[in-house]
Automatic annotation (TrEMBL):
Record-linked CDD domains: GATase1_Anthranilate_Synthase
Keywords of this entry: Glutamine amidotransferase
Protein transport in keyword set: no
Gene Ontology MF: a single term: anthranilate synthase activity
InterPro entries: Anth_synth/Amidotransfase, Class_I_gatase-like, GATASE, TrpG/PapA_dom
Pfam families registered for this protein in UniProt: GATase
Domain of life: Bacteria
Protein name: Aminodeoxychorismate/anthranilate synthase component II
GO biological process assignments: L-tryptophan biosynthetic process
Domain Glutamine amidotransferase: 3-185
Matches recorded under NCBIfam families: PRK07649.1, trpG_papA
Keyword Phosphoprotein: no
A Gene Ontology cellular-component term: cytosol
Organism: Metabacillus litoralis
Chain's gene name: pabA
């Protein structure tokens, strides 16, 4: 079962629909409607952190859940979820130079894990005014996707099953978004819970 932490975002249910189409069982909980102990009791196979209209500091339980479950269950963050992952591990989330609301960008990637067998570059839809600052990315995280302007578009933890994407894989204007989500599930399905 995938537990989706919903950061009060309309895109959450598009993500849920895509994952459901991939045959995954899902549970959605708002970021202020669940506790760490309740998440433990649910014992999800994956934890996903949704997009949202705020910064990681206003994302309810999102950052606490990432910090607590890092290394215990695979974690995937989208947009705000991605920013929350970066911030938990010491990166800075700052106002982007360019506001991207419903705009597409060409995304370059390293072809590994979630980007396995995907076109390079591919087109993705972006809805964000905040971004992870390159110079502050901690050593434990690596950049796995970027724009031509060198904006961070995806990160992966170097030793834990944690990945995040700044763009929206569930957008109809994102090429291969469903493939990316399937890659995440396939990549980390066999990870042993600790």
């Amino acid at each position: 079962m995938i537990l989706m932490i919903d950061n009060y975002d309309s895109f959450t249910f598009n993500l849920v629909q895509y994952l459901g189409e991939l045959g995954e069982e899902l549970m959605v909980k708002r970021n202020d409607e669940i506790t760490i102990s309740e998440i433990e009791q649910l014992n999800p196979q994956f934890l996903m952190i949704s997009p949202g209209p705020c910064s990681p500091n206003e994302a309810g339980i999102s950052m606490e859940a990432i910090e607590y479950f890092a290394g215990k269950i695979p974690i995937f963050g989208v947009c705000l979820g991605h920013q929350s992952i970066a911030q938990v591990f010491g990166g800075d989330v700052i106002r982007a130079e360019r506001l991207m609301h419903g705009k597409t960008s060409e995304i370059n990637h390293n072809g590994e894990t979630i980007f396995k067998n995907m076109e390079n570059p591919f087109t993705a839809t972006r809805y964000h005014s905040l971004i992870v600052k390159n110079e502050t990315l901690p050593d434990c995280l690596e950049v796995t996707a970027w724009t031509d302007e060198n904006e961070i578009m995806a990160i992966r933890h170097k030793s834990l099953p944690i990945e995040g994407v700044q763009f929206h894989p569930e957008s109809i204007m994102t090429s291969f978004g469903k493939d990316l989500l399937k890659n995440f599930i396939d990549q980390y399905k066999l990870v042993e819970k600790s």
